[in-house]
Amino acid sequence: MSPPAGSVRNRRSRRYRDDAALGPVSGIVTIVGRPNVGKSTLFNRLTGQRHAIVDETAGLTRDRLYGVAEWRGRRFTLVDTAGLDPALISEDPGIAELTRGTQQQARIAIEEADLCILMVDVRAGVTGLDEDVAAILRTGGKPVILVGNKADSPADPYYAHELYRLGLGEPRLISALTGTDTGDLLDEVVDRLPPAEGEAQERVDELRIAIIGRPNVGKSSLLNYLVGEERALVSSVAGTTRDAVDTLLEHGGHQIRLVDTAGIRRRGVVTTDIEHYSLLRAMRALERSDVALVVVDTSEGVVAQDRHIAGYAADAGKGVVVIANKWDLVPQEDRVDPETLTKISAAFDFVPGAPVLTVSALLGRNVAKVLDTAQQVADARATRMPTAALNQVLREAVTSHPPAMHRGRRVKILYCAQASSPNPTVVLFVNDPELLHFSYQRYLENRIRAVFGFAGVQLHMVVRRRADSEG
Ligand code: GDP
Ligand code: GDP
Fold first, then answer.
1. Which region among 88-92, 149-153, 183-187, 304-308 has the lowest average model confidence (pLDDT)?
2. Span 9-192: which CATH code?
3. 76 C-alpha vs ligand 1 centroid, how far in Å?
4. Which of 211, 214, 216, 325 for a ligand 2 pocket mutation test, highest count of atoms within 8 Å of Cβ?
5. H and E: helices and strands count for the chain
6. Tell me: the pLDDT tens digits for 409-456?
7. Could you tell me the sign of the dihedral formed by the alpha carbons of 388, 392, 395, 401, in that order?
8. Which atom of ligand 1 lies closest to the CA of 149?
9. CATH class of 200-381
10. The domains spanning 9-192 and 200-381 adopt the same CATH topology
11. pLDDT one-digit tens code per residue, 334-391
């Protein structure tokens, strides 16, 4: 079998993890399109998410909706709109409803995104639904990249010419499945995104907190309690994004900024669209924060979506504090059973050491600890590891448990350094990144964490080849 055209680019697209960025997450890119064109497949490829589900069934609600993608030093939020469509999760989705749902998706996507990817199945050609969505995108005033997916092999017949009919310019043909030309797509995405706002470097001593979570878990109750208890400096200040309003508090001599409290207070009927809208808004709030308070409803138990929201915050490099709210509704025998808390912690074990606070926002129980805990996590996140001490830990780790042979060769771990990024990042220099096994990287990470902490924060590790270390 001859190598597929684009195999070189293919390799590039697989290398994106090594190019892992150090910068803050900024910008929202949304993938829209009718069911089954391959949106989730692309999402999974670009975010490398572990929990995402791809299923053959059209209309299956997807597990993971938001992820952090990285390309050439730029990190941004990627949204897979699959599963957001109310029509698709109804019992009996009629075609009319299906159409309505997909169009609605497109509208929300335009409203909240910085850039949209319209995905079409190039093997199937253009359908009426594709045309409807394209029409909405054309007038939406946001940049759009038209993607013809499932272009796996040039030998296959494509309907690429039909895609021009959508009036969105030249389509990019990719294969989300094999990765062909996804690197070029990412180049364009990164080129067309607005420049990263980033976290202001020269900022005042201020702790920035985002309160996030599913609808009805108690976010606004928590907010109200915090605002009522602490001395509110200013009840509302304009945030940087459109109608975002922040709240400033003073706590323990520090200024606290609760980011986009207007977004939290916005109440409404809980529909899938509202949830989607408020989640996108929460992603924006996260961009500007140091620590996320992930509120969960303990009376319902931790559900998948809670984990996804926390996972997103951690992937974005933010500190995570789990607020186990509505603790007053938990039966007494469960409250006194330490197992209950252990179980909640275990559900968030992908953020090592994330504090879990049992709280009743309604009654104000334990709420006093929330800001102190957030401050502790922010401090952990701001830890600077002295280079000498860090390399000492690395040397000891390698000596006590050397890396195994891989394809007859052994990776040489040379040295490491902490990157100057607000998201804790260690850059590890080795002779050949291909030889570094994932589990060994994880081992090194754990050793570093064991010495320096970082409780409640992900420690990002970037592996680089040192140019003069071949052989
Ligand atoms: P979504 O509903 O748009 O999210 O679509 P999915 O990502 O779930 O993909 C639908 C089906 O198309 C799955 O069976 C995928 O494996 C398949 N698929 C996705 N991308 C490609 C591709 O590039 N080539 C081929 N041949 N199949 C693909
Ligand atoms: P949000 O949608 O996440 O902002 O949630 P809200 O703060 O609006 O709360 C949703 C509902 O849960 C409201 O009826 C609150 O009164 C209730 N609630 C919030 N926190 C608690 C709590 O700690 N205990 C109990 N029993 N109810 C709560």
1. 88-92
2. 3.40.50.300
3. 23
4. 216
5. 16, 18
6. 889 999 999 988 788 989 999 998 888 988 999 999 999 999 999 999
7. negative
8. 23
9. alpha beta
10. yes
11. 999 999 999 999 999 999 999 999 999 999 999 889 999 999 999 999 999 999 999 9
Q: Which ligand is closest to the CA of 85, given by its number? A: 1
Tell which atom from ligand 2 comes closest to the C-alpha of 264: 4
The residue among 250 and 321 whose pLDDT is bigger is 321
Pocket of ligand 1 from Cβ distances under 6 Å: 33, 35-41, 54, 56, 82, 149-150, 152, 175-177
List Cα–Cα distances, 227 to 215, 243, 265, 353, 457, in angstroms: 20, 20, 12, 27, 26
Q: Give the ranges where 181-328 is alpha helix by DSSP (H).
A: 182-192, 219-229, 261-265, 272-287, 304-315
Ligand 2, atom 9, lies closest to the CA of 218
Atom 7 in ligand 1: which residue has the minimum CA distance?
Answer: 38
220: Cβ below 6 Å to ligand 2? yes
Atom of ligand 1 nearest to the CA of 42: 7
| Pocket flag, ligand 2, residue 307 (CB < 6 Å) | no
Q: Residue-wise over 316-353: b if at least 16 C-beta within 10 A, else e?
A: bbbbbbbbbbbbeebeeeeeeeeebbeebbebbeebbb
Q: Which position has the higher pLDDT, 56 or 225?
A: 225
Q: Report which bound ligand comes closest to the CA of 359.
A: 2
Predicted confidence band at 242 (pLDDT cuts at 50, 70, 90)?
Answer: low
The ligand that comes nearest to the alpha carbon of residue 181 is 1
Question: What residue segments make up the domains of the chain, in order of their start?
Answer: 9-192, 200-381, 387-469
End-to-end C-alpha distance for the chain, whole angstroms: 32
CB of 12 shorter than 6 A to ligand 2? no
CATH of domain 387-469: 3.30.300.20
Contact 265, 259 (CB under 8 A): no
Q: What is the mean pLDDT of residues 55-70?
A: 56
Cα(149) to ligand 1 centroid in Å equals 8
